[in-house]
Design brief:
The chain is mostly helical. It has six helices and three strands.
Length: 148
C-alpha cells in the first residue's frame, strides 16, 4: 500500500475519533447557560465549530444517556416551539461542578491577567528600546540627509 492510499483512510479515522472525543466538551458547553433540546445542542455545536464538527441526533442521545446515572444532566419533557413535547436536557449540580472544575483548572483568570501584564511590560521596554536605538542610529547625521 503506497503512502497516498494509506494516508486518506488514516486521516478519516483520526477525524472521526477526534470528533467523538470532543462530543462531551461540546455537550457541556451547550448546556452551560440554559436547558436545551437535542436539536438546539446539535445547532449550537455546528454553529460554534463553524460547521467543522457535526453529530447525528442519535449520537447525541446515545452520549447523553450515560450522564443521568452520573447525576450530571437530567431530562425533562417540555413543550417545544413547534408545539410538540420534546425532551429538554439540563445540567444538574454534578455537571455544573464538573464544568466549574474543568474551567478553573484550565482557565485561571489570574494567570491570564499575569501573562497580559508581563507582555505589556515587555512591549513597553521594546518600544523604549526601539525609540532609543532609532535616536542613536541618526545621531550625527545632518538633518538635510535625513529629510530628503
Amino acid at each position: 500500500m503506497n503512502r497516498k492510499t494509506y494516508k486518506q483512510p488514516f486521516l478519516k479515522a483520526y477525524e472521526v475519533t477526534y470528533k467523538k472525543d470532543q462530543l462531551t466538551l461540546w455537550l457541556f458547553l451547550s448546556l452551560k447557560d440554559q436547558p436545551e433540546y437535542v436539536s438546539e445542542i446539535k445547532e449550537f455545536i455546528e454553529t460554534n465549530s463553524n460547521n467543522t464538527i457535526t453529530y447525528e441526533k442519535q449520537s447525541l442521545y446515545r452520549t447523553l444517556r450515560i450522564y443521568p446515572e452520573l447525576e450530571m444532566v437530567e431530562f425533562d419533557l417540555a413543550q417545544s416551539e413547534w408545539g410538540l413535547a420534546g425532551i429538554t436536557i439540563l445540567q444538574r449540580r454534578g455537571g455544573e461542578k464538573c464544568w466549574t472544575h474543568f474551567t478553573l483548572k484550565f482557565e485561571n483568570i489570574h494567570q491570564i491577567f499575569g501573562i497580559m501584564g508581563i507582555w505589556g511590560v515587555v512591549l513597553f521596554f521594546y518600544f523604549i528600546f526601539s525609540l532609543w536605538s532609532s535616536k542613536n542610529a541618526i545621531k550625527g547625521i545632518p538633518k538635510e540627509d535625513i529629510f530628503e
